[in-house]
Amino acid sequence: MTGRTHDLAGLTTLTAYITYQPLMTMSLATFIVSFGANMFGSVAPDLDQATASFWRKFPAGSLIGSIVQPLLGSHRLISHSIIGIFTANWLMTLLLGYTHKFLIVDAKIVLFSFMFGYISHLIMDTFTKEGVPWLFPIPIRFGFPPIKIFRVTTDSMFERGVIYPGLMILNGYLIYHNYSKFLNFFTHHIIR
Ligand SMILES: [Zn+2]
After folding, report:
1. CA-CA distance, 89 to 38, in Å (whole number)?
2. Residue-range definition of the domain harbouring residue 83
3. Mapping DSSP to helix (H, G, I), strand (E, B) and coil, where does residue 142 land?
4. CA of 125 relative to ligand 1 center, distance in Å
5. Residue 33's pLDDT is what?
6. Which of 150, 174, 181, 165 has the alpha carbon at shortest distance from 5?
7. Cα of 121 to ligand 1 centre, how many Å?
8. Which end of the chain is more exposed for a tag (fewer CB within 10 A), N or C?
């Protein structure tokens, strides 16, 4: 899946969380940082790709990318596995522990939001032809549906014309049907 589909899928997990779970109260800073962390988590597993759009956003980014990539193994290995989920959780906890000194946010909510994005990435990739090595280092790639030809090709017409708009509609549907809850969240649960 492309970065923008992953970002939208990550956002969908937040929309679903607000829809189905009791509302949490947080500061505006926590909300903004959590939102960013969710977007970052949604594309983070693909940082093992030197060409990942994330790396291209920085000067020398592709250079850094090509250094990071061999450390993570080739594309879709450790970062796309259960071990990768725990490693990302650990790294993010370390990072938040460090930034806690100058960034006043609720680290639990930020971490949670990041992990939602990260896990949504792996789930979305499971629907692609390449599949996901969930049990890395066991060299088996899992995909759904199990028969490869029924799975999605990255950046295909199906992804752009069905999956992406489908996720948009899902978000719109959840927000529309729970409009008062979303309004309540944005007006009373985000403290400025
Ligand atoms: Zn991926």
Report:
1. 13
2. 3-191
3. strand
4. 6
5. 96
6. 165
7. 6
8. C
